[in-house]
Design a protein that fits this description.
Blueprint: E1 5-7, E2 12-13, H1 14-22, H2 28-35, H3 42-60
Antiparallel strand pairs: 1-2
Helix pairs in contact: 1-3
Bound molecules: FE2/S2 (inorganic) cluster.
Length: 62
């Protein structure tokens, strides 16, 4: 699941998101600045914003 591509326009995988969270990214806008995730099609932006929040929650509640 970790190497699943979640934004195919910009080749972003679940692992990439996790990596950025570990490096301190705490909001979706910053993640977008770093990866361009969800900047080209609105439906995936919403899905990926939810996914990001879930992964962030999981990471900070460890
Ligand atoms: S899949 Fe990448 S912007 Fe939508």
């Amino acid at each position: 699941m970790e190497d699943k591509e979640v934004c195919c326009c910009h080749n972003v995988t679940v692992n990439d998101i996790l990596k950025h969270i570990q490096e301190g990214v705490r909001d979706f806008k910053t993640l977008q600045e770093k990866t361009k995730i969800g900047t080209d099609c609105p439906p995936c932006k919403e899905d990926n914003e939810l996914l990001f929040k879930e992964l962030l929650q999981r990471d900070i509640s460890k």
